[in-house]
Specification:
- The complex is a heterotetramer, with 2 copies of chain A and 2 copies of chain B.
- Chain A has 11 helices and 14 strands.
- The termini of chain A are far apart.
- Chain A is 28% helix and 20% strand.
- By secondary structure, chain A is α/β, with parallel strands linked by helices.
- By secondary structure, chain B is an alpha/beta fold.
- In chain B, the strands form 4 sheets. A 7-stranded mixed beta sheet of chain B has the order 9-8-10-11-13-12-19, sandwiched between helices.
- In chain B, strand 5 (92-96), helix 3 and strand 6 (124-128) form a beta-alpha-beta unit.
- The chains are: A alpha/beta, B alpha/beta.
- Chains in contact: A-B, A-C, A-D, B-C, B-D, C-D.
- The interface between A and B is large, with 60 and 68 residues.
- The structure holds thiamine diphosphate (TPP) (2 copies), iron/sulfur cluster (SF4) (2 copies) and magnesium ion (2 copies).
- One magnesium ion (MG) binds at residues 58, 100-102, 129, 131-133, 140 of chain A.
Chain lengths: 339, 603, 339, 603
């Protein structure tokens, strides 16, 4: 790292590596993500002390230990709440939450949806491996129905969440998806999330090679199944761009053979659209329904940011009432004097 | 001692408040006990809908709102039914006869009209047609319907009581004008009703005398009346100023703690951030996150919400970050009786977390005392980098008393220093401790060069790195315990009030302070000797506590629980302390404690 | 009530009134709801002992006390979890959850969304008064941004949830809305919810005349602003049916003057559509965006019910392995005998 | 006493398990202590990645897995480094020389090769090229890569040890065949490696002798080996059968409790419903909801999850419904050391709820003992209509011992009756109590005529209607307390083992049972007298507990916490009990307890 004493710093990925030995299973997708994030960090243009990673519990949640920034490995599911207190009281910091599918959507579901609706200035990275890794392989709220795991030897009975659908239903202002090993795609999404003021929700498809190996092979390995969403571009994908996405009369978005439809009927992606309905429809395109998975930024709209509103309210109060005067406060209301 | 009682909609709390203010300004010492019912508005005229407010005032210092009122104002049959049992024999009863119609009598469950059936023979009953007289008095005012006029009857009653005790009236008249500034006709109506009540007292033959209670002799200075929740709010604001740390409150509404959130939300110009969270878990989590960032993190709740914060408090214990957790206790278990006081959360805050997880506990003893208790809790949290529990209860929260307003300049500085430099050559060791306090450095994000990671896994001594080493774990468990135990050296010794060398000690904590003091006074007045001592620190105990309790043959610990402090004292000091325990969701009466103490002294 | 000893019963509203005095504030919308539900109950065709109301904490949550059925007034926000245990272990019961906007969406948000995704056979009635009634008037997660309440004297800072959007985002199979005082509309929705096997989520707009009076006047009082959704019918509303709803190119649903568009472009409501995108779009039509509010059943689709799957799994296990034999279980694995 | 140690990936747990099985079948008494590291797979060859398994076996009855192994099998340098400190001087060390390359030595933090630098001079070192010999031995098998072959080295080691102690081999060979049925080539490889290991022992001159440890003399009957978590699972299944109530488990995964969920999930043919909830709050809530419906509601977790259940347990206390809350304790505070045992949740389960909220507490003392402890917890919960805490810990959970399988027919019936009829004329009073047990009727939905509502607000005695009456509240608080206290009459007296009339009592609870017993044996062997007693009920205590502890001059309470039972005993009985407390995340060693007891006896 080379600082110049003016707070301007030119950092590299190496500057973001902590001295702790990385302890995920060999081959775990978390390594790839760590790598991309460490390479990405200098792009923030912030010195390291202004960056904080907060996590809950899980394999993913060990992430902060490996970043040479401030960090807290907190308790299961509560990272969004803890990070909210930090971000709201310290608007000068860049606060990142790292969480897993169990951490964020099972025990922590409520904190997640509330931080999204509030639009707290947090970057929330959900490492979705569709399994509980740390506790050795029970199904998670993103596991498919009928999943055979340690805790469901006869198959799981609950319909999974779609993380993007629930985020959009929870009024999220920024919603995106990337793949652990897709350096370029992930880096782009991280950049967009960092630039977004307010809460940014990023689902990262992550392979747990021990307990749920290959869960995302259909899109991690088969690039033809990746639908990269590009703002203001018609949605096309496939090895030769031979497929596209259209909107159906029933409001859903569907994959079609591009050749089979009029080019102009292809959906033109508009991440900045205030109305979340189309982003929601895109979130319903899955491997199961369409054999392909949209990636990139689904939705990115500006709306008031909780932390900003809070700061403004404090400023306004000070403007109206003057900086709080303790003696005056204690003497407010009826007083009387005993001589 | 007066109690106003009426329907929730009758404005009894306002009436009581104003009477209290007049009384305070007049210079009497006083204590109050509001008693509002459940949390929803029960149907008008029903028993659960009754709301009461008791004021105790005198020309000497007062310790409790009193056991039995001498005067009861009952606005309707339900209010009479609920409260008459408490009125002292020979006491004065003022009833609003207009409300004693068949429907109301039936709603209150009266078979016959108590005003007629002789059942009130023990009392001086004044039948006053409060409603109709009020309506009559307000006839002149335009824009007021007779229904609206009738609503002013509480001011009529207030005027009457003010006359009876010769309270100064200016404050109430000014208050009415200000409060109803937006609706001047209502202001006029209330003022008129108030004066009409006063005049009625003066002219009616029914009230032969008015009482004069001379001002009490209080320490010189400027006073105000203050409730526990307000004192707590101000204490937190003061602690923020004194520590130089911006206040961050994470809270989720719950009776009787919501008020602290609500009051702090008004004080944003003090740099206060109030965060109404989605639940108590998030509320405490956000406060802890703010503390990580260098704020004064506070979270407030009552028992049913405090249980949900245990996990976060456990994390704070191992992170060794300051966090103030305010528990305004109410009757339980579970949802219990939300508006009623109790002191039964002591063992929960001591032990309600997995594993060895020591947390200091500070308790307030009087409404005004909540101010200093809050500052003390913050002082300990910051200095020792630890979560601290601050205990109040529904009785302190809503009760009020006159308070000698402290000089701001005289309040002690409680500021701390954040770490700014490595503490081991080039390296920063986040768990290297201060030799005296055992506190670790507080290095907040934004500090260059001190980047570090903390978490809930066991940490290696000094480095804070994750460690599964057996001996290290034992060491860390003991260090955390020693840090909290060591606070004993930094808090005042337990003071004993023992004028005559007694054999019996009454040891208390929390809101029983007033009742114990009053009871001891009465016992001493009978020529018996009794000592009293009151704990404001429950963990650790003041360093001389063992000495104190062992110095007496008999130790009585009255608590509004089944004996929680008693258990701690017995375990730690092996003294055969006995308890006086009634768990009724209300404060002790001085009289019952007097009996209990007398019995023990004489035993 | 008159039973005939065969378990067949002919009950009336009166049979469902408990002996407890109803203790809401005079004028509270909860009275109207209680009344409609008591009138509706006989329609279930179930004897009273088979019906259970479970609630959390709040004004709304006092509901079970007033019903002459089994009931539990539990703890704040947890009713869906408690009811899940009951419904899953007792498929013979009809289990209803009564909750408020704070109870369901603030502290209880996580349990709500999980019970919806699981599709547990619960009927969840959310009395939305956009305020915390019981604790005397703090803002709730459905209160509008900038709301001045006891806890937000300078205005609230958080963007509200849209209860139906979050439910749909959480994979709800049945989603509906009604108004406290609209007997007919509410009764219809209750009937549809009762008939739906799986979790049924019903938002009931309820007036809190003490702390948030008039919050829904625009649709509670002004009937012209009610958009009644009727399955398989074009969506039209207004005093003279002069307005309608169309789907826009951006995926959203919007109110239009019916006269201004071709009749055939009006959306035809299809509550049974598997794809939730259009139901989601309809949930975004609000008074703030369109000056009108859709009512009725937004979505009602069949999907596997958690409780049923659980029962089937038990049956299958018994079929495969025989009724569990304790002695055999204790002796499973390696054993040896000492003489 | 043998310890196998290697990398997490080396299959040490499987190896240990098999050796244990062979040993059990052979008829030795035994106890085991698996010790796996953190919860993720650390990099191969690293210190945190080391996994161990200790087996203690003998021809007499065994109480603990032992302090110091006599034989250590170290599969790599990291395993050596972590474990060598424990090996008894003069003990046997078997190392896999193939793993002692520079890279592994460096990863383990060895500056020089311990096999060469003389640092192992105190031990009998056997250098065995386990990896290469295994690869060599498997050369003949098709379909097996040499990497795969290398993985069978644990079976080679197992074969060698089996030869050394002359264990019967049939079980292991059958096991391998079944376990790897889907990949017969792996089955063949493991079997071959196992035999190769045995043969190596027999042929190599390095191992001069093999040991024979004769079968222990155990009570006649059919035995199996059982771990605490399996015993607990079976106990719950048995309790469901014995009570006639279908089992409903609400759980959220957490180490070391997940296994109970996982095992019960396999037992659906017993009518078991397992519900993996979204969190611990929902898990306990669902279990309580199921209990309301007449199921046996159970919820399982470890400390960090139990804190989240407090609110629900508080509700269960006031609803007076049965609920089993299993806490498999692990080292804390907060996340702590997830795989390590501790007994520090006792005070949390006693007091971790708002207000007076008494809950019975049952604790298991041995792995097999979890079976009966589970049944006992269920018995109390059902009979008294109360939540019950059942305490186990990570050591009991994973440790195993031989178990004399009980006759199903000999297990006592614990069934109950649901209410079916009104109990007050035409009326049903849901809080009218049984005169003896103080339990209220359990009327489940579906029962005609008994429709009623229950909730968390305080209830009127008998009717269960919401009540804010002060005296009623006091009564209810006392009734709930009396109900739990009354259970003392219904549990066995505390048994004291005092062969020689000692002056010193060692009082324990939970998993220290074995270590205390072994230590007492050793102390007695030195001619000193010491008594022991072990509590399986922590709330209420057995009725003679006061008598027992007061009968001794000195009372020592060893606990893997800072003195939690000690505090309860001191408070309740006012005896000056002292503690032996080490909080290292691992069981006590008999030797250290021996020292502690000896010191106290001699004092
Ligand atoms: C309160 C609490 N409950 C349960 C656990 C156990 N636990 C730790 S991580 C985890 C789930 C991890 O899954 P996920 O969030 O998907 O992360 P992953 O390990 O897959 O990266 C669980 C159940 C805990 N630590 N704390
Ligand atoms: C754990 C816990 N936290 C807080 C409370 C206090 N509390 C009771 S009801 C309630 C909110 C009620 O709002 P809502 O659910 O909208 O119901 P309403 O009263 O408006 O019908 C709160 C915060 C509680 N009882 N328990
Ligand atoms: S268990 Fe899975 S998610 Fe966890 S570290 Fe291993 S591979 Fe990664
Ligand atoms: S406070 Fe509001 S919601 Fe509660 S009972 Fe009164 S009117 Fe109804
Ligand atoms: Mg995961
Ligand atoms: Mg509400």
């Amino acid at each position: 790292m080379s600082g110049n004493g003016n707070g301007l710093v030119q950092l590299t990925a190496k500057d973001f590596k902590s001295d702790q030995e990385v302890r995920w299973c060999p081959g775990c997708g978390d390594y790839a993500i760590l790598n991309v994030i460490q390479v990405f960090m200098p792009e923030l243009g912030l010195s390291r002390e202004r960056i904080v990673f907060v996590s809950g519990i899980g394999c993913a949640a060990r992430f902060p230990y490996y970043m040479q920034t401030y960090g807290m490995h907190s308790i299961h599911g509560r990272a969004p709440a803890i990070a909210t207190g930090l971000a709201v009281s310290r608007p000068d910091l860049s606060v990142w939450v790292v969480t897993g599918d169990g951490d964020a959507l099972s025990i922590g579901g409520n904190h997640l949806i509330h931080s999204l609706r509030r639009n707290v200035n947090l970057k929330i990275l959900l490492f979705n491996n569709k399994i509980y890794g740390l506790t050795k392989g029970q199904y998670s709220p993103t596991s498919e129905l009928g999943k055979v795991t340690k805790s469901t030897p006869l198959g799981s009975l609950d319909h999974p969440f779609n993380p993007l659908s629930i985020a959009i239903g929870a009024e999220a202002s920024f919603v995106a998806r990337a793949i652990d090993t897709d350096k370029k795609g992930l880096t782009e999404v991280l950049g967009a999330a960092a630039r977004h003021r307010g809460s940014a929700f990023v689902e990262i498809l992550q392979n747990c090679n021990i307990y749920n190996d290959g869960a995302f092979d259909f899109v991690r390995e088969e690039k033809g199944n990746r639908i990269y969403l590009q703002h203001a571009e018609p949605i096309r994908f496939g090895a030769e761009g031979e497929k596209g996405v259209v909107q159906e009369a029933d409001g859903s978005a569907r994959v079609v053979e591009a050749a089979a439809v009029d080019e102009t009927t292809l959906l033109v992606h508009d991440a900045g659209q205030r109305e979340p309905s189309l982003a929601f429809a895109l979130s319903r395109i899955t491997f199961e329904t369409d054999g392909a998975v949209p990636l990139g930024v689904f939705r990115s709209v500006e709306r008031p940011v909780y932390d900003d509103l809070m700061s403004e309210q404090l400023d306004a109060a000070r403007e109206t009432s003057g900086e709080g005067d303790l003696a005056a406060l204690l003497h407010s209301g009826d007083t009387w004097t005993v001589a | 001692m007066i109690r106003f009682a009426g329907d929730s909609g009758d404005g009894m709390q306002l009436t009581g408040d104003r009477f209290t203010s007049e009384t305070a300004v007049f210079g009497n010492d006083l204590a109050t006990l509001p008693d509002f019912p459940a949390e929803i508005r029960a149907p008008a005229g029903s028993l659960p809908g009754v709301s009461g407010f008791q004021v105790h005032f005198a020309d000497h210092d007062i310790l409790t709102p009193g056991d039995q009122p001498n005067v009861l104002v009952a606005m309707n049959p339900a209010a009479l039914k609920v409260n008459i049992g408490d009125l002292a024999k020979g006491g004065t009863l003022i009833v609003n006869t207009d409300a004693f119609n068949d429907r109301n009598l039936q709603k209150a469950g009266y078979g016959s009209n108590p005003l007629e059936d002789g059942s009130l023979a023990d009392f001086h009953v004044h039948e006053v047609a409060l409603s109709s007289m009020t309506i009559e008095a307000l006839k002149g005012i335009d824009l007021i319907t007779s229904r609206e006029a009738e609503r002013s009857k509480n001011f009529f009653a207030l005027g009457l009581m003010s006359w009876l005790y010769q309270r100064p009236v200016e404050g109430t008249l000014a208050f009415v004008e200000k409060k109803f500034a937006k609706r001047p006709e209502i202001a006029e109506a209330n003022a008129k009703a108030f004066k009409a009540g006063w005049n009625y007292g003066e002219t009616s033959e029914d009230f032969a005398v008015s009482y004069e209670i001379a001002p009490a002799k209080l320490e010189p200075g400027t006073y105000r009346q203050i409730s526990g929740n307000t004192a707590l709010t101000y204490g937190l604001i003061a602690a923020s100023k004194l520590s130089g740390l911006p206040l961050f409150l994470g809270a989720y509404p719950i009776t009787p703690a919501s008020e602290v959130l609500e009051q702090l939300a008004y004080l944003k110009h003090f740099g206060v951030r109030t965060f109404q969270a989605e639940d108590e878990i998030a509320a405490s989590g956000a406060a802890l996150g703010a503390a990580f960032g260098g704020a004064l993190g506070v979270t407030t709740s009552a028992g049913p919400g405090i249980v949900l914060k245990s996990e976060t408090v456990g994390l704070a214990v191992t992170l060794e970050l300051p966090l103030i957790v305010v528990d305004i206790q109410r009757a339980g278990p579970s949802t219990g009786m939300p508006t009623k006081p109790e002191q039964a959360d002591l063992l929960m805050v001591m032990f309600g977390r997995n594993s060895e997880s020591p947390v200091p506990v500070v308790a307030a003893s009087t409404p005004a005392g909540c101010f200093h208790a809050a500052i003390e809790a913050v002082r300990i949290a910051i200095k020792y980098r630890t979560p601290v529990f601050l205990l109040s209860d529904a009785y302190l929260a809503n009760g009020s008393e006159p308070w000698l307003i402290p000089e701001v300049g005289a309040l002690a500085d409680i500021s701390t220093e954040f770490a700014t430099e490595p503490n081991d050559g080039e390296t920063f060791l986040p768990y290297r401790r201060d030799a005296e306090t055992l506190a670790r450095p507080w290095a907040i994000p934004g500090t260059p060069g001190l980047e570090h990671r903390i978490g809930g896994l066991e940490k290696e001594d000094e480095t804070g790195n994750v460690s599964y080493d057996p001996e290290n774990h034992d060491l860390m468990v003991r260090l955390r315990a020693a840090k909290v135990a060591g606070i004993a050296a930094d808090i005042p010794e337990l003071e004993v009030d023992d004028p005559d060398g007694a054999e019996t000690l009454v040891l208390g904590w929390g809101s029983t302070y007033g009742a114990i003091g009053a009871a001891a006074r009465r016992v001493r007045a009978t020529g018996r000797n009794v000592a009293t001592a009151h704990l404001n620190h429950l963990n650790p105990f003041p360093r001389n506590t063992g000495e104190v309790v062992r110095a007496y043959d008999k130790v009585l610990i009255p608590e509004i629980n089944l004996g929680q402090l008693r258990m701690l004292v017995r375990a730690e000091f092996l003294v055969d302390a006995v308890g006086y325990n009634k768990v009724r969701g209300r404060p002790f009466r001085a009289a019952e404690l007097e009996d209990a103490i007398t019995a023990l002294v004489d035993s």
